[in-house]
Write a structure and sequence with these properties.
Blueprint lengths: L3 E3 L10 E5 L4 E5 L6 E4 L7 E6 L6 E5 L8 E5 L6 E3 L10 E6 L10 E5 L4 E5 L8 E4 L1 H10 L13 E7 L2 E6 L4 E9 L2 E9 L11 E9 L2 E9 L7 E10 L4 E4 L6 E8 L4 E8 L8 E4 L9 E4 L4 E4 L14 E3 L27 E3 L4 H8 L10 H8 L4 H8 L3 H6 L20 E5 L4 E5 L6 E5 L9 E6 L2 E6 L2 E6 L4 E4 L12 E3 L10 E5 L7 E7 L7 E6 L11 E3 L2 E5 L5 E6 L4 E5 L12 E7 L2 E7 L6 E7 L4 E5 L5 E4 L6 E4 L8 E8 L2 E6 L4 E4 L12 E3 L3 E3 L5
Parallel strand pairs: 1-4, 21-23, 47-49
Antiparallel strand pairs: 2-3, 2-26, 3-4, 5-6, 6-7, 7-8, 9-10, 10-11, 11-12, 13-14, 14-15, 15-16, 17-18, 18-19, 19-20, 21-22, 23-24, 24-25, 25-52, 27-30, 28-29, 28-53, 29-30, 31-32, 32-33, 33-34, 35-36, 36-37, 37-38, 39-40, 40-41, 41-42, 43-44, 44-45, 45-46, 47-48, 49-50, 49-52, 50-51
Length: 723
């Protein structure tokens, strides 16, 4: 699509813009329509580099060349009013400027411009932006002394400590220490003199299984301080796995997890080259969906992501057109009149559940009395003989039985409630197709049937209600962690089996188990990946009943564990690495081993999502191209040790996610030869058909556009098992 060209966005709608620059033109991208861009040639910005977008005041900091090699010239520019304010020259190279803070609008006489510099670590500020001078203050010694006095920094070498993410909140200046992970308050006492006071530690979320790297960012919003834990699969920053947001209670100095923010939206953009970001918030409006975090990632920065805080899902736009061919990190610009004027009113999402005595499965349906009132207007229901009602209920499978009981009061009274802990032979209990499972906001697990789209809720034991994380799944059992504790949990029977407490933080990509925990052969494994300082891997493993986790160390420099779950296959754990190669872990009583296979060769080369599945006694690998461009399935030919392309799954279907991938034989016509993903198109789960080579959903006959789907980040698949 041809972009509109001119001298400014016309009209400048009252919402944030994402702005790219190629040195000559500025490209304005609208969040209301990601298929259109506005190219502007603004003479004042020719050959200038944008260093930062100042939070909350609508101005951007630009640098441009100086005849003196060690000096940089700076200016502030307002993209809406086109005003430009030239700042005093600065004896510093521009690339070392990481952040810019304005104490107020630069049109006000008392505005102070504050720069944070990485090398050397300096805070530079100017109180008279027209004809004043820059004042440089080195903060390293004061920072480390204050941390040491407060008992927050026990390190002997403080030379690498820096202040990151500066932010103004309620007239005070705050920052985050790079290694101490501490919020500090910065007091400018007098020229060349700073006082730094430690305030509170940064919160760290319990990360999903497949998160390996995360960023911690601090932002001000309407007089409140927020901390973002943003998690990625690796250091490339291309694949995000979760965002967890906290708000600081200044009175108690504790962080409160934000479950919902319906009155506002947050905007973030990252520059992974110099490890800086800019961000702010603004109120929800017609063009701005509340409860969302809008951001760009390091995938060329050409797409806009939207993360729903309450639902925990991620959507991505189609690429912006007409962007610079060379890599360019964008910035957000915001009109100054979009600043929030009211405090956050957090409201937890209330799930309407029907309490059915001791039943653990509850369906998200309308209130039972409303259903009864609507249905009993139909004459045929009240006049059915009770014997006939009992006869209808008797052959129903478990899920249909729940539907039947919720129909009206008469059906509810005739069909007795299910005691889930007791076998119910009178009910037909076939093996159902896998369901998608995710942790709900009301301390329950939500289950979604991909065929019908039905949603079910199951209560959790008290010990799992404090933020349990799904690590793996097999035969109706979940392997979950709560902080340093690990459990096997069957949500359908409510059976809960604890494993020994961990002496380590579970945070690396690979965790799985061999068989159901009631088996004597059951063992849970967790891989601690190699670090920058060591090429060794560590395997932690434990069986039910063991008092401790055992650890085994091994070295392999030619294998990198990827963000997918292992498959227990023929007595060993199989891992599909980042390069598409196979690794085999064998835990024997006498000798353990980890072997990286030279064959088969990876069937696909590139940065793809990968999954490993056992299907009908064979090993399958699934590769997904970036942004779902294509999906390919391969079968391992063990006699020749090669991957063979699979064009048809027959009567089988595959379910893939980072925490659990599995296969199943078709139970309902029309579900076969498909791969089901933790993605939604509206309220329906998305699948990829090997017959059509396209994405679809059961509630739409049309091909589903990948960019119209949302991905649930923290979830998994489970096979329903009541006995």
């Amino acid at each position: 699509m041809a972009a509109e060209r001119g001298h400014r966005p016309s009209p400048p709608e009252a919402y944030p813009w994402l702005v790219y620059s190629d040195g000559k033109d500025q490209i304005f991208c609208s969040i209301s329509n990601t298929k259109e861009t506005y190219i502007r040639t603004i003479p004042e910005l020719q050959n200038k580099t944008c260093l930062a977008s100042t939070t909350g005041h609508g101005w951007c900091l630009y640098s441009y060349s100086s005849t003196a090699p060690d000096w940089c010239l700076l200016c502030l520019w307002n993209p809406v009013t086109l005003e430009k304010i030239t700042l005093p020259p600065l004896n510093l190279k521009a690339q070392y400027i990481k952040n810019c803070i304005l104490s107020s609008s630069p049109t006000e006489p008392d505005c102070m411009v504050i720069l944070f510099v990485s090398e050397p670590p300096l805070i530079i500020y100017c109180g008279n932006i027209i004809d004043g001078e820059w004042i440089k203050s080195s903060y390293l010694e004061e920072l480390n002394q204050s941390l040491h006095k407060a008992g927050k920094n026990k390190l002997q070498n403080y030379s690498n400590e820096r202040i990151l993410d500066p932010v103004c909140c309620n007239g005070n200046l705050y920052g985050v220490t790079s290694f101490g992970n501490m919020i500090v308050q910065i007091h400018i006492i007098q020229p060349n003199s700073l006082k730094i006071s430690p305030i509170v530690n940064i919160p760290f979320a319990h990360v999903p299984q497949y998160s390996d790297v995360w960023l911690t960012l601090v932002m001000e919003s309407c007089g409140e301080l927020f901390c973002f834990n943003i998690m990625f699969t690796d250091s490339s920053g291309r694949y995000m796995t979760a965002i967890v947001i906290y708000k600081l209670d200044f009175d108690k100095l504790v962080w409160l997890k934000v479950e919902s923010a319906k009155d506002r939206a947050f905007f973030l953009s990252f520059n992974f080259d110099n490890q800086s970001y800019n961000g702010f918030s603004c109120p929800a409006a017609t063009e701005i969906e509340g409860n969302c975090v809008y951001l760009t990632l390091a995938d060329g920065h050409k797409k806009l992501y939207s993360y729903n805080i309450e639902e925990g899902n991620l959507s991505v736009s189609s690429p912006f057109p007409n962007l610079p061919t060379r890599k360019s990190s964008p910035i957000w610009v915001m009109p100054a009149d979009l600043r929030l004027s009211s405090t956050m009113k957090e409201a937890k999402h209330r799930i309407n559940m029907e309490e059915q005595g001791s039943e653990k499965v509850q369906e998200k349906v309308n209130d039972l009395e409303d259903v009864e009132e609507a249905n009993e207007t139909k004459a045929h229901l009240p006049y059915l003989p009770l014997d006939m009602v009992k006869l209808i209920a008797k052959p129903l499978i478990l899920v249909d039985y729940l539907h039947f009981r919720a129909t009206c009061k008469m059906f509810h009274s005739v069909a007795p409630q299910i005691q889930w802990r007791i076998a119910t032979p009178r009910l037909v209990n076939p093996s159902l197709s896998p369901w998608l499972v995710l942790f709900g906001k009301e301390s329950v697990y939500s289950f979604i049937d991909p065929n019908h789209g039905d949603k079910y809720l199951i209560n959790l034991p008290q010990v799992l209600k404090e933020g349990s994380i799904i690590r793996s799944s097999k035969d109706g059992w979940l392997l979950v962690t709560v902080r340093m504790s690990t459990f096997f949990f069957n949500p359908f029977t409510q059976a809960l089996l604890p494993l020994a407490d961990c002496s380590f933080h579970i945070r690396n990509p690979c965790m799985g188990f061999s068989s159901t925990p009631d088996s004597s052969e059951c063992v849970a494994v967790e891989i601690k990946d190699k670090t920058a300082n060591s090429s060794n891997f560590f395997v932690n493993y434990c069986s039910p009943g063991n008092e401790d986790w055992d650890e085994w160390e091994f070295e392999y420099t030619n294998f990198s564990f990827d963000c997918n779950s292992p498959v227990f296959y023929k007595g060993a754990f199989y891992y599909l690495g980042k390069e598409g190669n196979l690794g085999i872990l064998k835990l024997n009583n006498e000798e353990h081993s980890f072997e990286v296979l030279t064959k088969p060769k990876p069937p696909c080369n590139g940065n793809f999502q990968k999954f490993l599945v056992e299907c009908n006694g064979e090993l399958l690998s699934i590769f997904v191209a970036p942004f779902g461009k294509w999906v390919r399935v391969f079968k391992l030919n063990e006699s020749k040790m090669t991957w063979v392309r699979v064009e048809n799954l027959g009567n089988y279907m595959l379910y893939v996610s980072h925490t659990s991938s599995m296969s199943a034989i078709v139970k309902s016509p029309g579900m076969e030869n498909k791969i089901y993903f933790p993605r939604f198109y509206g309220e329906s789960i998305v699948f990829y058909s090997l017959e059509t080579d396209n994405y679809h959903s059961f509630k739409s006959k049309d091909v589903v556009d990948f960019y119209s789907t949302t991905e649930v980040l923290c979830c998994g698949w489970i096979e329903p098992r009541w006995c």
